[in-house]
Amino acid sequence: MTNRSFPALVAAVALAACGLLAPPASSLEGDWILERGTHGGVDLPLLEGAPVNLRIEGSDVGGTAACNIYGGTVERDGDAVSFSALTMTEMGCDEPRMTLESAYIAALADVEAAVRDGDRLSLTGPDVELSFRLSVPPADASLVGTSWVLDSLVDGDAVSSVIDTPAIEFGDDGVVTGDTGCRAFDGSYVLDGTELTIENLVVEDVACAADLAAQDEHVLAVLGRATTVAIEGNRLSLTGASIGLDYRVADG
Questions:
Q1: Of 238, 200, 202, which is closest to residue 219 (Cα–Cα)?
Q2: Residue 215's pLDDT is what?
Q3: Which terminus of the chain, N or C, has less C-beta within 10 A?
């Protein structure tokens, strides 16, 4: 678990809600998805299901580097650019995601030039070439009828990674089902605007392994109180008081 208080991300993460469909042709701003890259003559080992993206808004940059969220600043003078003040959360992920993350961040730090051609962005340096395509933000998913997979646990300004693939689904019959990664649960729910209340929660009566016990407790603590629902594209956040759960659309 780590503190994620780096100012550059505040504006960067908000980019997904901005109008990215038609930025000026000369602008580098947008949400860019890495399609391929090399650094030091070695190909970056891109992975299906572990996207790398770069969000640029003004001098602020941020994104996800296969595992962790990163942020920083960019300076531009014509085609010349440099990325600096790069910071990152410290969630642990399985290999080979961590290898890809390290390779990408090292490559980004060595970039010296940027050229945009429509919906393509090329970042280069003496020993670096990163090729991106512009990403159009997905339409907001529906809370009801969508299968959601838990990505992270939130506690104040701290975020921690998740063990296994806990899931949750809200049915159009007012029933919620899911699991904590250890125990299955079901109950009923009431949605009033953006406020969600889960009632009559029934949890499977089994013992959790030591490494799953804290996660199980956190998930049930959030679901056991009134929470605020926020959906942005394929992401769902449930927040109650200072704790929360961040989900994504399954296979999304």
A1: 238
A2: 97
A3: C
What was the pLDDT predicted at 5?
36
Options 2.60.40.1260, 2.40.128.270, 2.60.40.10, 3.90.700.10; CATH for 2-134 is 2.40.128.270
pLDDT value, residue 21:
39
> How far is residue 100's CA from residue 109's CA, in Å, rounded to a whole number?
14
Specify the pLDDT at position 85. 87
CA 22, 28, 32, 38: dihedral to nearest 10 degrees? 150
pLDDT along the chain (252 residues), means of 10: 36 36 65 96 92 94 90 93 89 86 95 96 96 89 96 86 93 98 98 96 96 96 96 93 94 68
Q: Report the amino acid identity of residue 178.
A: G
pLDDT of residue 202: 98
- Bridge partners (DSSP) of residue 60 are 57, 73
Q: Which residues, 6 or more positions from 177, have their beta carbon under 8 angstroms from its beta carbon? A: 168, 169, 171, 184, 185, 186
Could you tell me the two tokens for 52?
Answer: 């790398």
Record the pTM.
0.59
Q: Where are the beta strands (DSSP E) in 15-165?
A: 30-39, 42-43, 53-57, 60-65, 68-77, 80-88, 113-117, 120-125, 128-134, 147-155, 158-161
Report the alpha-carbon distance of residue 10 to residue 19 in Å, rounded.
17
Q: How many residues does the chain have?
A: 252
CATH topology for 147-249 is Lipocalin (2.40.128)
